[in-house]
Task: inverse folding
């Protein structure tokens, strides 16, 4: 059995989609959800889907030893970042070589880096008058959005696009491809 931990700071729509995808899977389980935001929608997803979750906050910060212990106890094989805003520490990265992945809502290496999150990304893509956008799934290393690329999917930018409209189109790609790529990585 392969166990996944999903880390997220926001709505949790990717987390929910991934959980649904693996619901009846023989050899993959979503074991744990980790968030740094006590008001995040991803907590509701965890509750609804009956998945253990950890809220990181001032009394329970992202301390390497604590989180490592949780990951070890839950026998986590793959950490899936889905809109997680905190930087993953080197200690955790070193303990999970090629086993932490992220999805970014644009075609890296463009429109990545610190602060490039959610609608900021789409706003920037439109301001730069790009013809294409899409998703990038990549391994995590010590720099924001710079780990080895695993997969990209593209969509065209339409004439009347707004950040919200573009976000919707890009999220469709996220829902379509993230679970499949996760499954492939675990094989
Ligand atoms: C997703 O669109 C993801 O690509 C993005 O945050 C959103 C989370 O939505 N991640 C980044 O921007 C990372 N730089 P969700 O909570 O509904 O899955």
Result:
């Amino acid at each position: 059995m392969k166990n996944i931990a999903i880390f997220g700071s926001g709505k949790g729509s990717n987390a929910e989609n991934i959980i649904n995808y693996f619901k009846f899977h023989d050899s993959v389980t979503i074991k744990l959800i980790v968030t740094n935001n006590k008001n995040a929608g991803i907590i509701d997803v965890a509750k609804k889907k009956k998945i253990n979750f950890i809220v990181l906050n001032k009394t329970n910060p992202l301390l390497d030893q604590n989180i490592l212990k949780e990951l070890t106890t839950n026998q986590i094989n793959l950490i899936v970042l889905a809109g997680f805003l905190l930087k993953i520490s080197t200690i955790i990265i070193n303990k999970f070589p090629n086993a932490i992945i992220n999805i970014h809502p644009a075609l890296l290496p463009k429109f990545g880096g610190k602060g490039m999150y959610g609608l900021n990304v789409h706003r920037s893509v439109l301001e730069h008058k790009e013809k294409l956008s899409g998703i990038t799934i990549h391994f995590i290393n010590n720099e924001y959005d710079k780990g080895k690329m695993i997969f990209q999917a593209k969509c065209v930018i339409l004439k009347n696009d707004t950040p919200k409209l573009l976000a919707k189109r890009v999220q469709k790609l996220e829902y379509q491809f993230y679970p499949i790529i996760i499954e492939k990585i675990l094989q």
